[in-house]
Amino acid sequence: MDKSKIKVCVGLSGGVDSSVAAWLLKQEGYDVFAMFMQNWHDADATLHGDCEWEEDRFVAEMVARKIGIPFYFADLSKQYRQRVVDYMFDEYAKGRTPNPDVLCNREIKFDAFLEVALKYGADYVATGHYCRKEEIPGGVFRILEGADPNKDQSYFLCQLSQEQLRRTLFPIGHLTKPEVRRIAREADLPSADKKDSQGICFVGKVDLPTFLKQKLASVEGDVVEVLDPYYATDPLYTWQQETLGRLLKEGEVLDRTVHYAPEEKILTSDGKPLGVSPFEEARVATLTEEELQKLSTPLTYSLEFETETYRSGKKHIRKTRYKENPCGRIAGRHEGAQFYTIGQRKGLGIGGHAEPVFVIATDMAANRVYVGEGHNHKGLSRFCLRVAPQEIHWIRPDLAMACGEMRRYRVRIRYRQPLQSATLLMRHSGLYILFDGPQRGISPGQFAVWYDGTEMLGSGVI
């Protein structure tokens, strides 16, 4: 294959990863050109308040000049706002937790950007993602985890299609971050020591509530702390725990402790085998569709607080207070339930607790935020989730599950989460994922992504 006749458009962001991707392709003999995407104009939303994209474009131009490749500019801000930002606002307004980076890749980098690149004559587009692509017999493409266990970015590409993969190259997926930095320094690229970008894709680092307040109104409401006795009164919680217990293998005890924290940096499977399920396969297979729906249903909270009057101080001034409720208490106030997500710890402003306090649920209709104390609070974790039929996406359509089928895969529900062993069950009402252990902070709107070994097979919106 004469690589000099293959034209590749590199999405050059000004960062070190895309810079090294372009440099490597040029060294390999491809006909390379660079294109910088401007997807965001509003600097008021960012924490630093300046036009970060202007600096990025300047660095990207210098990199292209250093490598000796043509440089182009594409303004995709209209498409980005319509397909990513508006979707993000809409999801948060519904009390869901979207992942804009996943949408940015599906809708912008590998769709709108690809469309522009093809008009410039590109055969492929290339990015600086830490993941690997492989073609197998039959013209089918696989997405594999990046070689760097601390930088794997396959999760963000979980919505790509075979057609998008056919036109895509990932030149640095076989490298580690230190190796990329070394190559950039040896090639004397202007971005060699540039810090990695943070925050929302193309927007930058933002204060999320402030960003959302551009379109979502602030409405004060109660923050309600749910106490442990509540769960003894909740029929759904009781049923779910009894059902999980019934599914266990003989001699197994249901472990309700979350054994990882979001701060952990172990991302890839690292060759680890799929865990052995504590649940009996034959028993799991007998679950009816109604039982699976019930098992995957998140808890909703209904706590009422009565008031009472009392006299205070020497002058016996009449005051009002809430009566003590063993199941919960009013713990504070918030500025809008849509600004909070399940599993959130920061920004609650609630003190007086020995352990951290987390959001366990939001009620958009009542404008309430429910919280619980401690990493192992009963309301913070779930074992089962559902992906609606229209939200199921198979990167490998040839491996799609048939209705009634059951498989074992490893799954993650957020980027920085270590892969979790789980059983997937396909039914008419959707795909159900039953984890071997409890998962903290499952929120509607997140993407669940499943892997077979190091290969990412598919994803779906929870």
Describe the protein.
The protein has a domain at 3-207: HUPs (Rossmann fold), CATH 3.40.50. 25% of the residues lie in helices and 26% in strands. It contains eleven helices and 20 strands. It has helices at residues 16-28, 52-67, 77-93, 100-119, 162-166, 177-186, 208-212, 230-233, 235-247, 281-285, 289-295, and strands at residues 7-11, 31-38, 71-75, 124-126, 131-136, 140-145, 168-169, 221-226, 307-312, 317-322, 328-334, 357-363, 368-373, 381-387, 392-394, 406-412, 420-427, 430-440, 447-452, 455-461. Strand 17 (420-427) and strand 18 form a beta hairpin. The longest helix is centred in the N-terminal third of the chain and has 20 residues, at 100-119. The protein is globular, with a radius of gyration of 25 Å. The model is unreliable at 263-271 (pLDDT under 50).
Could you list some keywords that capture this structure?
alpha+beta; 11 helices; Rossmann fold; five-stranded parallel beta sheet; 462 residues; nine-stranded antiparallel beta sheet
Write the layout of secondary structure elements.
Blueprint: E1 7-11, H1 16-28, E2 31-38, H2 52-67, E3 71-75, H3 77-93, H4 100-119, E4 124-126, E5 131-136, E6 140-145, H5 162-166, E7 168-169, H6 177-186, H7 208-212, E8 221-226, H8 230-233, H9 235-247, H10 281-285, H11 289-295, E9 307-312, E10 317-322, E11 328-334, E12 357-363, E13 368-373, E14 381-387, E15 392-394, E16 406-412, E17 420-427, E18 430-440, E19 447-452, E20 455-461
Helix pairs in contact: 1-2, 1-6, 3-4
